[in-house]
Specification:
Helices cover about 5% and strands about 55% of the residues. It is mainly beta. It folds into three domains: about 60 residues, Roll (SH3 type barrels); about 60 residues, Nucleic acid-binding proteins (OB fold (Dihydrolipoamide Acetyltransferase, E2P), Beta Barrel); about 60 residues, Nucleic acid-binding proteins (OB fold (Dihydrolipoamide Acetyltransferase, E2P), Beta Barrel), CATH 2.40.50.
């Protein structure tokens, strides 16, 4: 486990803070007038997703968290829990409370590939690709009219998520979706 000085606590690093795993979202080292430098950070808890702010002073250090990755498959969500199994070992099943992983699970279909982050050999959260391809299962019919200004409609994807898309999208089309923003990126194939 590496020990990081205050200035090495930078964006995308995962640190042990108060014996919990936190991802550094942003960091800024600055000096206020005659004082010593300070690293002002925003940290996101890997399990709860709660964001906090903390300032690390010149004499402070932090341990880099030992995070391991495990390849897994999404199985289903039932009774408030989202279930997964280890890739190649379907007997190794585990779950997360649905409210902790909902923002990621809503873009997954059954047997979708995910990466599970392990902290102290226990699953803490999942990581999904930034862009996923999903089939449109429900799309209202397009009504001819003035579409010069663009226009959007709400469609339902195979995962159950609802997104805004251009009017030309129909049922059966395969769309690429940005999972960070929840926005339509492009149509991959036409039905």
């Amino acid at each position: 486990m590496a020990i990081l000085s205050y200035s090495e606590i930078t964006q995308k690093k995962i640190i042990d803070f108060n014996n919990e795993p936190y991802e550094v979202l942003s960091s800024r080292v600055f000096r206020m007038q005659m004082r010593k430098p300070v690293n002002q950070t925003k940290l996101r808890h890997l399990v709860s997703g709660k964001v906090i702010e903390n300032s690390f002073h010149q004499n402070e250090t932090a341990k880099e968290a030992e995070i391991e990755n495990m390849e897994a498959a999404f199985l289903y969500t039932n009774r408030g829990e989202s279930w997964f199994c280890e890739q190649g070992n379907p007997k190794n099943r585990f779950s997360f409370p649905e409210n902790e992983v909902y923002e990621k699970v809503k873009w997954l279909v059954q047997n979708a590939h995910v990466t599970v982050l392990l902290y102290n050999e226990r699953p803490v959260t999942i990581s999904i690709p930034i862009k996923v391809e999903l089939t449109v299962t429900k799309a209202p019919p397009t009504i001819k009219g003035d579409t010069a200004s663009g226009g959007t409609k709400q469609v339902t994807l195979a995962s159950g998520a609802v997104v805004s898309t251009p009017l030309f999208i129909n049922e059966g089309d395969v769309l690429r979706i940005n999972t960070d923003t929840g926005e339509y990126v492009e149509r991959v194939s036409k039905a």
